[in-house]
Every structure is written in C-alpha cells, then in structure tokens.
Design a protein that fits this description.
With 242 residues, this protein is an alpha+beta fold. The protein has one domain. It has nine helices and eight strands. It has an eight-stranded mixed sheet. Strand 6, helix 7 and strand 7 form a beta-alpha-beta unit. The longest helix is centred in the last third of the chain and has 13 residues. The model has no long low-confidence stretch (mean pLDDT 93).
C-alpha cells in the first residue's frame, strides 16, 4: 500500500481539511498516541468521539469495553441480547425494517467483523501502524463526496461492478465490516445511521474505503479529474457563493 501521506494530493485538491480517520485491528502494544477509552458500563456511540478524533485522539475498543451494544455486536461479535429481542428492538423500537422477517433476513447476510487482535483503534492515520489498517474514512461535504465517488471509480473496470455502495446499516459497521479487507477495492458512503448523525456537523457525510481502495485514491495523478474544469468550476462557484 502507498505511504499514507500520499493522500495529501487528493485532500488538497478537494480542500478536505479534516483529518482522515483510520480503523486499526492491532495488538495491545500498538503505538498510538493520545489513546482514550469509553467509560466502562456507560453506553456511548462510537461517533460521540468525533471531536476527539479531530483533536488527534485515538479511541481504543475491546470486546469488554466497546461503548454501545451496537459497536460491541458489529465490531466484536458480542451478543448482548437474544436474536428475537435484537430483532424486536431493531423493528419495533427503531422501525428500521417493515417486518421482523425482513430484518432477520438482513441479519443473516450481514456478518459481524472478525477481529484478529484484541483491540480496535479508531483515530487519525498513523504511518507506523499501516500494516494493521483496515479502513480509512473521509468526513466530507456533498461536493467532496461527489469527487471521492468519481475517484473511487477512476481505476475501476466495469466488469468488476460498482466499487462504491450506499449500504443500509449502523454507522459503526459502515466503518469496518462493510469494507472487507481483501484484494477488491471497496468504498461505502456512510454516516447514514440516524442514531449517530447528531455527533457530526450536519453538512458532513462519511466516505469509508478499505486499504486497497485507499491505495488507488492515493495514486490518482495530475492527469485526472482533479485538474479538470468541472471540479475547478465547482470550487470557484462555491467560493463565490459564500
């Protein structure tokens, strides 16, 4: 994979000034700076730490301290309630599917993440921990999101299908289990979970990519759309409209 700092080219061109956030499946001796952990036995959404990420802090999660039951389930496979109770909550309390049968069917095809190490770290990118990197998230405006979707398609072959999806699911599962760590470049448009939206500025969405896709985004050069009139015109239009 390319050196993480190579992302500077595309972030500069798109005026992305928020830190890119990585998800790492790493051992206990991981060399992260400014680590914070959820308060034990208190339900806290992963995205409640958004401002901490922006300040350069890294969230440390484990199967015994994961913040909320959603992240415990999707990031660690931790079942805190029975299947029927879980489905009743998702359908009855949250109204996320029109029937329990359809929710059960979705759960059957939506596997939880299988961690390789005891801890998952979420925070600013760190070059020395690159080998443990599972995904990278860009927090972006709609204009920036549009450009990143084009970027994700820049090297894509039509025979491989769309490299970008807008999947149904919780915000935390969109950070990890929906961008599998394999040889296929994959991206998802995230932060569509109503339960976590309040932790983000209202104009931001998430664009999460696996390591393979991040490498491709970092390799986009000056011959691409990043230096063509449509993007330049859009940026100038937005500036003039302020």
């Amino acid at each position: 994979m390319s050196t993480l700092l190579d992302a500077t080219y595309i972030t500069d061109k798109l005026n992305i000034d928020l830190p890119l956030i990585g998800v790492y499946d790493a051992p206990r001796d991981a060399e992260f700076d400014r680590i914070i952990e959820p308060v034990s036995h208190r339900r806290t959404c992963v995205f409640a730490y958004f401002n901490a990420w922006m300040r350069g802090q890294t969230l440390k999660l484990s199967s015994t301290n994961y913040g909320c039951s959603g992240s415990g389930y999707w990031l660690f496979g931790k079942e805190t309630r029975g299947r029927k109770e879980f489905i009743d909550f998702l359908v009855g309390d949250e109204g996320l599917k029109c029937s329990r049968e359809k929710m059960a069917s979705w759960l059957d095809v939506s596997p939880t993440y299988k961690s390789k190490h005891r801890y998952i770290y979420i925070g600013p990118l760190k070059n020395s921990m690159e080998k443990y990197l599972k995904s990278v998230t860009f927090f972006v405006t709609p204009d920036q999101l549009s450009a990143l979707i084009i970027g994700a398609n820049y090297h894509a072959d039509a025979s491989e299908g769309s490299p970008v999806e807008v999947p149904f699911g919780s915000g935390c599962m969109q950070l990890l289990s929906m961008v599998p760590d394999n040889d296929k470049a994959k991206a998802v448009v995230g932060a569509s979970d109503l339960a976590m939206r309040k932790y983000l500025p209202k104009e931001l969405m998430a664009f999460t990519v696996n390591a393979k896709m991040f490498d491709k985004l970092c390799s986009i050069d000056h011959e691409s759309f990043l230096n063509k009139p449509y993007l330049k015109d859009l940026i100038e239009f937005r500036r003039a409209s302020k």
